Structure formats: C-alpha cells, structure tokens
Amino acid sequence: MFNMRIKNWLLPMLFGALMLSACSTDSETKNNENNTNNESEEKGEIELTLVNWATEIASTNVISLVLEEAGYETTLTPVDLSPMWIGVAQGDVDGFVGGWLPTDMKNEYEEYGDDVVDLGPNMEGNKTGLAVPDYVDITSIEEVNSDNFDEIVGIDAGSGLNQATEEVIEAYDIDIDIMDSSDAAMAAALGDAIENKEPIVVTAWQPH
Fold first, then answer.
1. Domains in the chain: how many in total?
2. In this predicted model, what pLDDT tens digit does every residue of 35-88 receive, in sequence order?
3. Beta-strand relationship, 72-79 and 44-51
4. 121 and 136 belong to one structural domain
5. pTM tops 0.90, yes or no
6. Beta strands of the chain (E only): which ranges?
7. Do 52 and 118 have their domain in common?
8. CB 14 within 8 Å of CB 103
9. Is omega for the bond preceding 102 within 30 degrees of 0, making it cis?
10. Which domain holds residue 194?
11. Could you tell me which of 152, 10, 115, 123 has the C-alpha nearest to residue 63?
C-alpha cells in the first residue's frame, strides 16, 4: 500500500455496478428453473468481462468465486473499457462488475444502459481524484502546477477518471497536462517516485 495523502477529490461518490446482459439473464433464469430439483447438476457457464485494472481484477475474481461455489463454471475475459460494455450489451458475454457509476462511465451507460441489466452496487462510497505522496508539500488542486510537477500521471486514455481530470485541468487553469498510461503504469511510476522521494501527482481512487 503506497503511503499517500489525498489532497482533494474531483468527483462525487461513485459505485461499481454489477451489469448483466439481458438475454443472458433470461436464459440463465430458465436454466435455474430447470435445475431446481437437481442441485448436483452443474448450473452452466458464465463469462465475465473486465478492464484489466487491479480493482476490477480483484472484484471480478471475488464474484467469480461466489458463482463457482454456487455451481457455475466461470470464465474471465480482460478487455478494454468500451468492449466491456459492448460485449455485455450485445449478449456476447454475460456480465461485469466494474461499472463505475454514475460519473466515470456515464457515457458508456448512456449508450448501452438500455441493453444491460443493472443489479445495483457491489461497493458504495467510492471517490476518485488526485493524490500526491505525503512528503509533497501541497494542500490543494490550485497548487498542482508546473512549479511542482512535470505532468499528472493518469490511467487509460478515454477512462472517466482521465476525462474528469481533463475537465479539472481546464477549470483550475492548471498549466500541466495529464499523461495517459495504465493502472499498472501509474502505480509503478508512483512507486518509483516514492522510493526516490520525487514529486508526483497521480489520478487515484478510494478505497482501492
């Protein structure tokens, strides 16, 4: 766990929603009804898709384990953000648990929400924003500038978190840009900076 002090949050409270494809849900319901009197019979296969973020790897594996203990055979398929939504909306895969709503993935939800079944939050009270190590002596977003940092280290290009950070850069007239990278690359850059006591500002999220 990196020793970070969160300076300020950019976005309102978020949650990760469990999304299932509508057609998959209907067929699974029928399958469950057919197997009600035969608990020993396997209940079928479920394919879950996920963005290859540490947060979603963890949460998807937890859900997978729960489903396997309930008698299902599960497959986990890592994809990019848009294909995760498209696959479920088209019924090519059965579901995902990484819907950061209502803010981070609002565009995807507006486009594909009618074609998925929202089973509600699997985590509540999440926040996203900017963070620096606790040895960096700033206390607000207004102090994120070229005097203190070369860039803001972000995650995936097109992610809701990066898009929100772009809006914050404009709103606060910040004179540095966000660098698109990935969940793993951002964490690695943060780790290297902490090891060398160098200044760095990254996109971050709680409680992960």
1. 2
2. 544 444 578 999 999 998 888 899 999 999 999 999 999 999 999 989 999 999
3. parallel
4. no
5. no
6. 4-9, 14-21, 44-51, 72-79, 95-101, 116-133, 152-153, 178-179, 201-206
7. yes
8. yes
9. yes
10. 4-12+127-206
11. 123
